[in-house]
Amino acid sequence: MRTAINPSISVDIVVFGFDGTRLKVLLVERQKLNSSATKEYKLPGSMIAENEDLDTSAHHTLQNLTGLNNIYLEQLHVFSDPNRISNEDDKKWIEFTYGITATRIVTVSYFSLVKINLSVLKATMQGKASWCDVQELKHVSFDHKEIILKGLDRLKSRMQSTPIAFELLPKKFTIKQLQNLYEAILGVDIDNRNFRKKILKYPFLIQLDEKEAKVNHKPALLYQFDAHSYRQEQKKLKKLKIF
Amino acid sequence: MRTAINPSISVDIVVFGFDGTRLKVLLVERQKLNSSATKEYKLPGSMIAENEDLDTSAHHTLQNLTGLNNIYLEQLHVFSDPNRISNEDDKKWIEFTYGITATRIVTVSYFSLVKINLSVLKATMQGKASWCDVQELKHVSFDHKEIILKGLDRLKSRMQSTPIAFELLPKKFTIKQLQNLYEAILGVDIDNRNFRKKILKYPFLIQLDEKEAKVNHKPALLYQFDAHSYRQEQKKLKKLKIF
Q1: Spans of all domains in chain B
Q2: Are B22 and B68 within 8 A, CB to CB?
Q3: Taking the model in full, what pTM does it have?
Q4: How far apart are CA A125 and CA A169, in angstroms?
Q5: What is the CA radius of gyration of chain B?
Q6: Which residues of A touch B242 (CB under 8 A)?
């Protein structure tokens, strides 16, 4: 039996990943209502169930539509333009999918970062979700491009004040991979030498006794982020500063 | 004519102010449904209108219920427990006020800081809103205490990373007032001498050629926050750091 849904409120989830060179966002294909229509993509999302809070709805939706579970999710922003569902195709798709006539839907967006590793790729492939390039978003339905850009804003600002970037990298990474990540997200070129010099000063970046494997260039040293030593450092800093 | 309302979604606004020694939050009295009931307070809030986005609804609601307008508001958090309106008194009040039978209301909370100056006091007194002590919240309806505490969390964390505290102080303030503010919000005692020493190092704190007036102790020097020089400083820092 289908759980009762609230026709006014939905959740939409922005999951970012990094493939080593490009920033990706996880999208699902929107079912076409006629075979000649263009293929369109949307964020994993759905109307909320009446008996679930929004966080629970977001986790269920993500699992159902993409195969991902146990992912850290946080509220991003509420999108509430009274006319956000005014396009006829969008209205038809909602009627077809949820059996409701959409007059107005307020959506609560969520934000998440994942490491694109083998188990994540397996889950999202089974879930038929696609990792799309954030710099080349085309045929994205509803106002979902706007929602993705809001997520990108949060990622950029968070990345410049916290070590959130490491959530997107493999556990062991090279300095070059870290630099690629910063360049891809901030959309800037960073000088190699300066970047190395700065980043190697951080005491919470641990150099491992290990190098990259299976690369067709001189293998680089691998590093690891030490969250514990980062937190200790932060405590010391907090004592010294007011803001 | 009454604008159509959406029975599923409301806005609630947490406005913090500082009276020189204590952190305050702006509440309105909830109309009693019978004369023997206890006086209860709630956040300024209302169901959203169908033709307004949430930011607009929040601004209108705040102006209608408290007299405050042109205030900077930002989204705080969405509260969506399916049982958040389960108390019989709360249900009756909603039925009486909005003419709807509340089954479930998701509320989007907003966050704001204001300087409690003469014009703000005049507006909020006319609007019959009360500045209540955040440390002594009693008889607060619904889950509004939880919403206020969420706002307090944001205020605390924001205050330790940005100069948001100055939004709560008069334009010209003493170092002691600034210290009182930090103590009141963070709930800690700060050593006077250390605080002065730290704070006076900040280049964006301008010492004025002026002292407090009408005080019954030795008048202290007044200071001003220089937002421009703060932004310049931040730009320099950003160039130097990755996070």
Answers
A1: 5-159, 163-236
A2: no
A3: 0.92
A4: 20
A5: 20
A6: 160, 182, 195, 198-199
Block residue for tokens 């990706």: A24
The single-letter code of the amino acid at A136 is E
pLDDT digits (tens, 9 = 90+) for A123-141: 998 888 999 999 999 999 9
Q: What interface predicted TM-score (ipTM) does this complex get?
A: 0.90
Check CB contact under 8 Å for A54 and B8.
Answer: no
What are the chain B neighbours of A200 within 8 Å (beta carbons)? none
Q: What is the CATH number of domain B163-236?
A: 1.10.10.10
Instruction: Name the interface residues of B facing A (CB cutoff 8 Å).
Output: 6, 8-9, 48, 50-55, 75, 77-78, 80-82, 103-104, 106, 108, 159-165, 182, 195, 198-199, 238, 240-243
| Distance in angstroms (rounded) separating the CA atoms of residues B122 and A205 | 55
Tokens representing B95 are 């039925």
User: What chain A residue is nearest to B186 in terms of C-alpha separation?
Assistant: A242
B5 touches B98 (CB < 8 A): yes
Helix (H) or strand (E) holding B118: helix B118-126
Q: Are A243 and B161 an interchain contact pair (Cβ–Cβ within 8 Å)? A: yes
Class at the top of the CATH hierarchy for domain A5-159: alpha beta
List pLDDT tens digits, range B45-60.
999 999 999 999 999 9
